[in-house]
Structure formats: structure tokens, C-alpha cells
Design a protein that fits this description.
Distance between the termini: 98 Å
Shape: elongated
Structural class: alpha+beta
Number of helices: 1
Oligomer: single chain
Radius of gyration: 27 Å
Order of helices and strands: HEEEEEEEEEEEE
Largest sheet: 4 strands, antiparallel
């Protein structure tokens, strides 16, 4: 009985010694690395509602997400490499509900509405508002790189002129 209690006491002492030893080593290593730079601490809140659209820029280093919630539409831009949020902003528009979004290039993305679209940079700055051709649905739409054509793929592929909204029929 005494021998078992001595074994328990010894095990506890060895465990405590190892615990203190590991703590001391990690504290020493942490002090050595944190003297020149300390890690940044930040809170990532993500979206509080349903994420409706996601777009990745052509180079794959930025992501845009759009939440459709009871308080409105919120867009967040993200740095993919660090996982950090760049900015969150609320879509303030008179154009109604957003129906799609995608990147135009590495630094600009477009948000489609039923009859218009808005172009933003990665920091939420609105760069341009565009009136869209008179089409029924723009959920599966893209604008050409030169900005002259809208390609709608809702019910088959159709191409429209951004200048006057007319449908362009290939020969």
C-alpha cells in the first residue's frame, strides 16, 4: 500500500517536472522569436447571414463574397493568402437585389442587378454604374473584357451590345 502511494507521488512529480520543463522551453522559444516581431491578432467575423455569391479574381489572390441578409446586402473582400478580410461594405443601391457578381480583372469586380450593374475596386470604392440592356434575367451574365458586350447564359447564350442593348446574332 505504501509502495503504491509512493509510485503515485513519484509519477505526479515526474509529470509536474515534465510539464514545467516543456513550459519553460516554450516560453524561452517564444521570447526569442517575439522580440523582433509579434504576431498580429485580429478578429475574423465572416458573414452573419447566407452567402449568396462568391468570386475569385483571375490571379487567385483575392476573393469577394456577398451576403444577402435581413439588413441588406454586404460585400466582403478577402486576401486569399492570409485569409484576412480586406473590407466589408453594405451595398447602397436603388437598383434592387443583386443577381450576380464576378471579377473583371484582378482588382475590379462587378455586381449585377436586374437592370444595371456597378463596378467596385477591392476596397469597396464604387468606380462605375452601368445601365444594362433590356433582358429578362442577368443571373448568369458576364461583361466582355473590353466592356462592349454583355453575354447572358440564362436560357442559352445571347450576346447584347452594352451601347444600345440590342441583341447581337452571330452569322
Amino acid at each position: 500500500m505504501i509502495q503504491k502511494s509512493l509510485q503515485v507521488v513519484m509519477k505526479k512529480r515526474v509529470f509536474l517536472f515534465l510539464l514545467v520543463f516543456v513550459f519553460a522551453i516554450s516560453a524561452h522559444a517564444g521570447a526569442a522569436t517575439s522580440s523582433s516581431s509579434s504576431p498580429d491578432i485580429f478578429v475574423q467575423t465572416g458573414h452573419s447571414g447566407r452567402v449568396k455569391f462568391v468570386a475569385l479574381n483571375p490571379s487567385g489572390n483575392h476573393l469577394v463574397t456577398m451576403e444577402q441578409g435581413s439588413l441588406g446586402h454586404f460585400i466582403k473582400t478577402w486576401n486569399v493568402a492570409s485569409g484576412r478580410e480586406i473590407i466589408t461594405f453594405k451595398l447602397e443601391t436603388e437598383y434592387g437585389y443583386a443577381s450576380n457578381l464576378h471579377f473583371l480583372d484582378d482588382n475590379k469586380f462587378i455586381v449585377f442587378y436586374q437592370k444595371s450593374a456597378e463596378i467596385f475596386d477591392l476596397y469597396g470604392q464604387k468606380l462605375q454604374s452601368i445601365k444594362l440592356p433590356k433582358i429578362i434575367f442577368v443571373r448568369l451574365s458576364r461583361i466582355s473584357k473590353d466592356g462592349q458586350y454583355l453575354i447572358n447564359q440564362e436560357y442559352g447564350s445571347k450576346i447584347y451590345s452594352m451601347r444600345d442593348g440590342s441583341e447581337i446574332v452571330p452569322p
